[in-house]
Amino acid sequence: MATAEASERYLSRLLGECGQQPVDADADVIHIQLPPWYDAELFRRGQKFHRKYIASVYIGMLMGLLSILAVPSILNVLMCTGKSETPLKAYRRYVKTIYHAVSWFYNDLQPGSKAWESIEMVRKKHLNARKYCEKAKQITIMQRDMAVTQFGFMGYMILRSKMIGIHINDEKELEGPVHFWRVIGYVMGIKDEINLCTGSVAETKERLKIVLENILRPSLEKPIPNFEPMTTALINGLWHFTRELDKDTCIFVAKRLAGCKGYEFWHSDFKQTPTKEDLEQMQYYKLNWFQRFLVCYFISISDFQMRFKIFRAYFNFGIRKREWINYYFPYTAILIFGIKNAYVRIFGSQKKVAHSE
């Protein structure tokens, strides 16, 4: 059981010297090893969970990655590397991110596997980006940044599962995905003291709440100026992967998931009974009619339709179909970016993103 004292200790480490340490400090070569507490069966249960709820997992990751763009230290690194500030660059960067995540969901994590190769590539890119940013802008990639990025991939999936369409009857089902992301965090270079995921679902949730309440929500409520153009590039880039995306709609959904004031939808979203003034300040009414429709469409899917296996299977199939189309025939990206830029690969000449189950 997570305690207030344990939460305070984690917050102190996250915001203190431990969280400010550079990732892979003084490292020139990356050596990946599985953690001593690695449980192969629990890791596979985590992979199975992601495949079972893949449509909701995608939603959670998209909203999480959008949310972390509001964090100044992370945004500054992204701007320094100069690989995601235009729709084309964002398209290639974030489609690669999708392909990396898919390789983790569908392959064994062992030397020689596609998942292992993917982890090695990402670790090397992080190392090179850190060195470049330290030299060019005197900024670095901190352990805290990695923990916040870890939240971007899995935070809403664990903390806001029902709000993104994951309706489970027993929290024990979360043990698999929590262990999965604990392992991924470890092999990505996150120290156990900073890793958001632990051996306990309850303790993991407490750590996620700490990041949400102390870093993400304040950053989203008062985003820095570069948040808007970087978010626009993200959404306009990934629009070629899924055409239901709209920037203001996605920001609304992300801020609702983060619990930002004014971004409530249901009365139950409010922390207490809403006043007339609270209702008048709801940002939903500032959206245009099409954006309101998209918000209602998303909420109808996550809150209602995804409760039923037939709808979950339908939306999961839709996601896998988009993966297939984007990999073999990304027609809208071809029209806008050209053939050479439209085709994205992470494994060189490999013809598949991931092996079959």
UniProtKB/TrEMBL annotation:
The chain crosses the membrane at residues 53-75, 289-306, 327-347. The keyword Transmembrane helix applies. Residues 55-214 form the ER-bound oxygenase mpaB/mpaB'/Rubber oxygenase catalytic domain. Keywords: Membrane, Transmembrane, Transmembrane helix. One of its GO terms (molecular function) is oxidoreductase activity. InterPro entries: MPAB/Lcp_cat_dom. This is ER-bound oxygenase mpaB/mpaB'/Rubber oxygenase catalytic domain-containing protein. It comes from Hermetia illucens.
